[in-house]
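Sequence dictates fold. Below is an illustrative record:

_____
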Amino acid sequence: MPTQLSDEAVDARIDEFVERSKELTGKAVKERTPWNHGATADAIRHFAHGISDDNPLWLDADYAADTAYGRRVAPPTFLTSVLYPILHGAPMDAPLASLIGGVEYRWLGPILEGDSLRAESVQKDLFEKESGSGRRLIFVISEVTYRNQRDEEVASATGTMIRS
Protein backbone atom coordinates (compact mmCIF):
# COMPACT_ATOMS: atom_id res chain seq x y z
CA MET A 1 0.00 0.00 0.00
CA PRO A 2 1.47 3.40 -0.99
CA THR A 3 2.47 5.73 1.80
CA GLN A 4 0.91 9.17 2.07
CA LEU A 5 3.39 12.02 1.51
CA SER A 6 3.59 14.80 4.06
CA ASP A 7 2.75 18.34 2.96
CA GLU A 8 6.44 19.21 3.28
CA ALA A 9 7.45 16.29 1.03
CA VAL A 10 4.86 17.31 -1.57
CA ASP A 11 6.08 20.93 -1.48
CA ALA A 12 9.69 19.77 -1.88
CA ARG A 13 8.78 17.71 -4.96
CA ILE A 14 6.87 20.62 -6.47
CA ASP A 15 9.80 22.98 -5.76
CA GLU A 16 12.12 20.54 -7.53
CA PHE A 17 9.74 20.33 -10.50
CA VAL A 18 9.59 24.14 -10.75
CA GLU A 19 13.38 24.53 -10.60
CA ARG A 20 14.01 21.83 -13.22
CA SER A 21 11.25 23.25 -15.43
CA LYS A 22 12.66 26.80 -15.22
CA GLU A 23 15.92 25.44 -16.65
CA LEU A 24 14.00 24.54 -19.84
CA THR A 25 12.92 28.14 -20.51
CA GLY A 26 14.24 29.36 -23.85
CA LYS A 27 15.17 25.87 -24.98
CA ALA A 28 13.71 23.60 -27.63
CA VAL A 29 11.91 20.77 -25.85
CA LYS A 30 10.88 17.47 -27.40
CA GLU A 31 8.23 15.80 -25.23
CA ARG A 32 6.78 13.64 -27.96
CA THR A 33 7.38 12.50 -31.52
CA PRO A 34 5.21 14.28 -34.12
CA TRP A 35 2.22 12.21 -35.22
CA ASN A 36 1.91 13.47 -38.80
CA HIS A 37 4.79 14.53 -41.01
CA GLY A 38 2.80 15.30 -44.12
CA ALA A 39 -0.50 16.60 -45.38
CA THR A 40 -1.36 13.59 -47.51
CA ALA A 41 -4.85 13.17 -48.95
CA ASP A 42 -5.39 10.32 -46.51
CA ALA A 43 -4.14 12.26 -43.46
CA ILE A 44 -6.31 15.27 -44.36
CA ARG A 45 -9.36 13.06 -44.89
CA HIS A 46 -8.87 11.15 -41.63
CA PHE A 47 -8.40 14.38 -39.68
CA ALA A 48 -11.44 16.07 -41.28
CA HIS A 49 -13.63 13.05 -40.52
CA GLY A 50 -12.24 12.92 -36.98
CA ILE A 51 -13.40 16.48 -36.30
CA SER A 52 -16.68 15.95 -38.24
CA ASP A 53 -15.85 18.65 -40.79
CA ASP A 54 -17.11 17.81 -44.27
CA ASN A 55 -15.81 20.96 -45.98
CA PRO A 56 -15.24 19.99 -49.65
CA LEU A 57 -11.99 21.99 -49.63
CA TRP A 58 -10.53 19.26 -47.40
CA LEU A 59 -12.38 16.24 -48.79
CA ASP A 60 -13.22 16.72 -52.49
CA ALA A 61 -10.19 16.73 -54.82
CA ASP A 62 -12.26 17.93 -57.81
CA TYR A 63 -13.77 20.80 -55.83
CA ALA A 64 -10.38 21.81 -54.40
CA ALA A 65 -8.76 21.71 -57.86
CA ASP A 66 -11.12 24.50 -59.00
CA THR A 67 -10.16 26.82 -56.12
CA ALA A 68 -7.27 29.28 -55.89
CA TYR A 69 -5.31 26.59 -54.02
CA GLY A 70 -5.52 24.09 -56.89
CA ARG A 71 -5.60 21.11 -54.52
CA ARG A 72 -6.92 19.97 -51.16
CA VAL A 73 -6.19 22.14 -48.14
CA ALA A 74 -5.76 20.75 -44.63
CA PRO A 75 -8.13 22.12 -41.98
CA PRO A 76 -6.35 24.77 -39.89
CA THR A 77 -6.47 22.59 -36.77
CA PHE A 78 -4.60 19.85 -38.69
CA LEU A 79 -1.52 21.30 -37.00
CA THR A 80 -2.51 19.54 -33.78
CA SER A 81 -1.94 16.24 -35.60
CA VAL A 82 1.62 17.32 -36.35
CA LEU A 83 2.51 18.44 -32.83
CA TYR A 84 0.21 19.52 -30.03
CA PRO A 85 1.31 22.97 -28.82
CA ILE A 86 1.42 22.30 -25.07
CA LEU A 87 4.50 21.50 -22.98
CA HIS A 88 4.26 20.13 -19.45
CA GLY A 89 7.57 21.25 -17.93
CA ALA A 90 10.24 18.87 -16.66
CA PRO A 91 9.43 15.24 -15.92
CA MET A 92 8.24 15.14 -12.34
CA ASP A 93 7.53 13.06 -9.32
CA ALA A 94 5.04 15.51 -7.84
CA PRO A 95 1.29 15.12 -7.41
CA LEU A 96 0.21 17.92 -9.77
CA ALA A 97 -2.89 18.01 -11.92
CA SER A 98 -2.70 19.38 -15.48
CA LEU A 99 -5.12 21.84 -17.04
CA ILE A 100 -4.84 23.30 -20.53
CA GLY A 101 -5.07 27.07 -20.10
CA GLY A 102 -5.48 27.82 -23.78
CA VAL A 103 -3.84 27.82 -27.20
CA GLU A 104 -3.47 30.79 -29.52
CA TYR A 105 -2.71 30.00 -33.17
CA ARG A 106 -1.25 32.28 -35.85
CA TRP A 107 -1.75 30.97 -39.37
CA LEU A 108 0.61 32.40 -41.96
CA GLY A 109 -0.31 30.31 -44.98
CA PRO A 110 -2.33 27.29 -46.05
CA ILE A 111 -1.25 23.71 -45.52
CA LEU A 112 -1.73 22.07 -48.90
CA GLU A 113 -2.03 18.44 -49.87
CA GLY A 114 1.48 17.16 -50.46
CA ASP A 115 3.17 19.50 -47.98
CA SER A 116 5.69 18.00 -45.58
CA LEU A 117 5.53 19.45 -42.10
CA ARG A 118 7.82 19.70 -39.11
CA ALA A 119 7.46 21.47 -35.81
CA GLU A 120 9.65 22.66 -32.96
CA SER A 121 8.49 23.40 -29.40
CA VAL A 122 10.22 25.96 -27.21
CA GLN A 123 9.35 26.58 -23.58
CA LYS A 124 8.93 30.37 -23.48
CA ASP A 125 8.19 30.96 -19.81
CA LEU A 126 7.31 29.42 -16.48
CA PHE A 127 5.79 31.38 -13.62
CA GLU A 128 3.72 30.80 -10.50
CA LYS A 129 0.57 32.35 -9.10
CA GLU A 130 -1.56 31.52 -6.10
CA SER A 131 -5.17 30.44 -6.48
CA GLY A 132 -7.96 32.00 -4.42
CA SER A 133 -7.79 28.96 -2.14
CA GLY A 134 -4.03 29.32 -1.65
CA ARG A 135 -2.91 26.52 -3.99
CA ARG A 136 0.14 26.92 -6.17
CA LEU A 137 -0.58 27.40 -9.86
CA ILE A 138 2.38 26.81 -12.16
CA PHE A 139 2.03 28.17 -15.69
CA VAL A 140 4.16 26.64 -18.46
CA ILE A 141 4.08 28.75 -21.64
CA SER A 142 5.26 27.12 -24.86
CA GLU A 143 5.49 28.08 -28.49
CA VAL A 144 5.49 25.75 -31.46
CA THR A 145 6.65 26.82 -34.92
CA TYR A 146 5.34 24.80 -37.87
CA ARG A 147 7.33 24.75 -41.15
CA ASN A 148 6.76 23.16 -44.54
CA GLN A 149 9.20 21.41 -46.87
CA ARG A 150 10.44 24.79 -48.20
CA ASP A 151 11.30 25.83 -44.61
CA GLU A 152 8.49 28.41 -44.76
CA GLU A 153 6.79 29.08 -41.45
CA VAL A 154 3.13 28.21 -42.05
CA ALA A 155 1.91 28.74 -38.49
CA SER A 156 2.84 29.07 -34.86
CA ALA A 157 0.96 28.41 -31.66
CA THR A 158 1.39 29.55 -28.08
CA GLY A 159 0.06 27.18 -25.45
CA THR A 160 -0.47 27.45 -21.72
CA MET A 161 -0.36 24.47 -19.37
CA ILE A 162 -1.43 25.06 -15.78
CA ARG A 163 -0.07 22.63 -13.20
CA SER A 164 -1.74 22.60 -9.80
